[in-house]
Design a protein that fits this description.
- GO terms for molecular function: O-acyltransferase activity.
- Keywords: Membrane, Repeat, Transferase, Transmembrane, Transmembrane helix.
- This is Putative colanic acid biosynthesis acetyltransferase.
- The chain is an alpha/beta fold.
- It has one domain: UDP N-Acetylglucosamine Acyltransferase, domain 1, CATH 2.160.10.10.
- It has two helices and 19 strands.
- A seven-stranded mixed sheet has the order 2-5-8-13-16-18-19. Strands 1-4-7-12-15 form a five-stranded parallel sheet, with helices on one face. Strands 3-6-9-14-17 form a five-stranded parallel sheet, with no helix packed on it.
- A hairpin with a 4-residue loop joins strand 18 and strand 19.
- The longest helix is centred in the N-terminal third of the chain and has 17 residues.
- It is flat.
- The termini are far apart.
Amino acid sequence: MGNQELDLSTYQRASTRKEQILRLLWTIVWAVFARPIPRSLFNSWKLFLLRIFGAKVKNTSVVYSRAKIYQPWNLEMGEYACIASDVDCYNADKIIIGDHATVSQKASLYTASHDISTASHVWFSKPIVIEAKAWVAAESFVMAGVTIGEGAVVGARAAVFKDVEPWTVVGGNPAKFIKKREIIC
């Protein structure tokens, strides 16, 4: 293979001017009307703001004030789903968070990246699905196109680049299987 030329002169923007303006408006609205509110207080107000910008969130969903949501129109949250403080939800594509699923503090969900095998560094996006009862723990990273299976746990600071099987626990970078998850009643 050897050294190959990387030519970014042909790089094309992934978003339209309209999307950029809408994202700017959204960023201002969230910064002014939601971010100053402590943690999960006035949650129904924050859900209202998200819905105005196209999010599909249930009344029991919880979004903390310091969560960073790139494009709310690409967000779907089920019953009692939670996005905690400082979560970076870069949802250039759909992010779907199922019923009773949690994304903990400082986790990063990235639905877009660049194809490093192309000379023009082509931009791509793929959805992320976090199924019901799953938990993405603190400071984890989940990449575009990944599905976190029902009841699965992504351990703190794990980096997930492939689907996680239901009812399993994964951790590390890259995330690897640790054990089956069993709920003790």
